[in-house]
Specification:
It is a single chain. By secondary structure, the protein is mostly helical. The termini are far apart. The radius of gyration is 30 Å and the shape is elongated. The longest helix is centred in the C-terminal third of the chain and has 31 residues. Helix 17 runs parallel beside helix 22 and helix 20 packs antiparallel against helix 21. 64% of the residues lie in helices and 6% in strands. The protein is built from 22 helices and 6 strands. Helix 15 links the parallel strand 4 and strand 5. The protein has 3 domains: 135 residues, MgtE N-terminal fold (Alpha Horseshoe); 121 residues, Roll (CBS-domain); 171 residues, SLC41 divalent cation transporters, integral membrane domain (Tetracycline Repressor, domain 2). It has a 3-stranded mixed sheet with strand order 1-2-3. A 3-stranded mixed sheet has the order 4-5-6.
């Protein structure tokens, strides 16, 4: 029999044909199965695990529940964690969570129902339980919910030797990964920080005050995660202390957590622009329909509004069939131009580049750009209309309508998200519907209205 390739060396294959978890489940010997699967990196294990069927996941948990470690739970998609947690004993979950930093623990606890959460909390050590309950008391997507409660702080009169000795004694109480030692005053307020790299190069008798960088950016625990990500990006932070209402340090955020937030926010904005939500690996077709149908219903209503405009000029279309041929081009070009302006505006708002101070300049830029682009394509459209139908007046109607629709599209693409932002709404969620409505209604009204005036 020829040798088969080692499937554990193929992390790029999460399909069932090359899924080592699925293949290991076919083994009768549980010990051999564990040996195979323990060799997988948690990130690869999570990919393969997510590709399993519900039945296969239940079989794996039943045969080797100890393989569902805290590190694995932290790697899995939220919807998969939600399905797996009911299969595990509370004591096993509590033990698995002790391996993780507090921010990962909170994220996993969020996926439990109230009854299971209480059972798991009861199985945890009192200090760990208190920390989790404090995090869960904050609103979703706030820093208090997401922050890591483990951090290293020290008074400024400590020496490097004192600090190193303290960290060695703390042992497991330290965060798994940290970059800075936060220097605090007697009221536990951060007054500076010492990078670990700087600390390790200094002599043991060097005081922290002589090494301290006294310019420090703090993050309030009630701050929204998107605002925190903006601060990290603006000030090029690697980590930052989190403070309570009195300015006392209560946790920290690190750049790896912020990267997750940025990815989540970008994904959310992209999906919102299309009026859809993310289709998770465990979502059913019905759940997907429920998430997408409402926005399609809104689009149906706006499409009817555009159709009413067309119906208002039905007499003109009946007499001049060429109008029915050309009017979708005018509306489509305006819609695409509006979407371009909208995408740029929403991205600029998210990155804080588009503010009240720069709004007028951005609106003026989009208006001028839309006018120039409209002129370019109006000439092209008029030429096509004349060559196609041999009617100079029809070409003139197409020329004017194309310019008008492009200008309105460009202005709508920036003014609508600005207006929604000022009104307190998320511009990424609903802007596209309004922009499409404007370009359709203006495009059809301009083209058919001028045609009725000039050609009839």
């Amino acid at each position: 029999m020829p040798d088969t390739p080692d499937l554990l060396d193929r992390p790029d294959h999460a399909d069932m044909a090359f899924n080592p978890i699925a293949l290991a489940l076919d083994l009768a010997d549980d010990g051999e199965m564990r040996i195979r699967l323990e060799a997988l990196h948690p990130a690869d294990f999570s990919d393969y695990f997510e590709a399993l069927t519900d039945g296969q996941r239940e079989a794996l948990v039943g045969r080797a529940p100890e393989l569902i470690t805290g590190e694995l739970l932290a790697e899995l998609e939220d919807e998969v964690v939600e399905d797996v947690l009911p299969l595990l004993e509370p004591d096993l979950i509590a033990d698995a969570l002790t391996e993780l930093d507090s921010d990962d623990v909170t994220q996993i606890m969020e996926e439990m129902d109230a009854a299971q959460r209480r059972t798991v909390l009861d199985a945890m050590a009192p200090t760990e339980r208190a920390g989790v309950e404090a995090s869960l008391a904050f609103d979703d997507e706030t820093i208090g919910r997401l922050m890591q409660r483990e951090f290293v702080s020290a008074p400024e009169f400590w020496t490097v030797g004192d600090t190193i000795d303290h960290m060695r004694e703390a042992g497991e109480e330290l965060p798994d990964l940290f970059f800075n030692i936060y220097i605090v005053d007697p009221r536990l307020k951060p007054i500076g920080y010492v990078p670990v790299s700087k600390l390790m190069r200094a002599a043991r008798d060097t005081t922290l005050s002589s090494l301290m960088i006294d310019v420090i950016r703090t993050i309030d625990q009630s701050l929204d995660q998107e605002e925190a990500a903006y601060l990290f990006e603006k000030y090029h932070l690697i980590s930052a202390p989190v403070v309570d209402g009195q300015g006392r340090i209560v946790g920290m955020m690190t750049v790896d957590d912020i990267l997750d937030i940025i990815q989540d926010e970008n994904k959310e904005d992209i999906l919102a622009l299309a009026g859809v939500s993310e289709a998770g690996i465990t979502d059913t077709a019905l759940e997907t329909v429920k998430s997408r149908a409402p926005w399609l219903l809104v689009n149906l209503a706006t499409a009817i509004l555009a159709s009413l405009v067309i119906a208002r000029f039905d007499y003109a279309i009946e007499q001049i069939v060429a109008l029915a041929v050309l009017m979708p081009i005018v509306a489509s070009m305006g819609g695409n131009a509006g979407t371009q302006a909208l995408t740029v505006a929403v991205r600029s708002l998210a990155e804080r580049d588009l503010t009240s101070a720069t709004a007028w300049r951005a609106v003026r830029r989009e208006g001028v750009s839309a006018l120039i682009i409209g002129l370019i394509f109006a000439v092209a459209m008029a030429g096509i209309a004349f060559v196609w139908f041999g009617d100079a007046r029809l070409a003139g109607v197409a020329f004017v309508a194309m310019i008008i629709n492009h200008v309105f599209a460009g202005l709508a693409g920036i003014l609508i998200p600005l207006g929604l932002k000022r009104a307190g709404a998320d511009p990424a969620v609903s802007s596209s519907v309004f922009v499409t409505t404007v370009t359709d209604v203006v495009g059809f009204t301009a083209f058919l209205g001028f045609a009725a005036l000039i050609l009839l």
